[in-house]
Amino acid sequence: MLCALSSCFTGSRPTLEPMDTAVVVDDPAAAAVLDILAASPGSTSFTVRYEIVTNFGGLSTLAVVAVDEILGTSVEIGETRYLYTVEGTTSTCSTTTFECVTGIDETRISDRQLTSTFFKQSAIERIRQDTRVAVAPAIGREDSTVVDRASVCADFAVVDSQGAERTKTYCALTDYAVISTMETADLSVRAVSVEDSVDAARFQPPA
Description:
By secondary structure, the protein is mainly beta. It has two helices and 13 strands.
């Protein structure tokens, strides 16, 4: 069982399931998004491509998340590929130098204000934090405009460090249990495509 980064693969399903999902969030809209992110995806094999902008500095990044019940999870962010196998091994690879190290090295993408679980566990942690600091209950809604797939969203009203009120948004793809969009002070994340298949080469060290 793979339990890296506070998440586990359980059974034969390709799911990164947070270990602390028992924590109750007393906000219906936030809880709806969290429930989707904590669930097993409806598809046993899929690929989601994201466009990510780090707002502090305007750094743009392409990311590809591929999940397969047999092969595991591959997360490619810029020139770094993170590999999680169902057997429990993890590795961090460069797609330019083709070198790999054992384990997950998050420092490779720290300049992007990201972690390798931005699409699930990291989003869960952000939502819980914003639930605690929001000035009002989140507003829930449904959205099907992103990659023409159903999403459930929560909009949070928060106050920034300058005392101005701003909105943070999190949307989760209903059938895939990953985020479709995330708009925060530091990040703008948007899914640009979803495929119900994977390229097996993504689950191997780059060569």
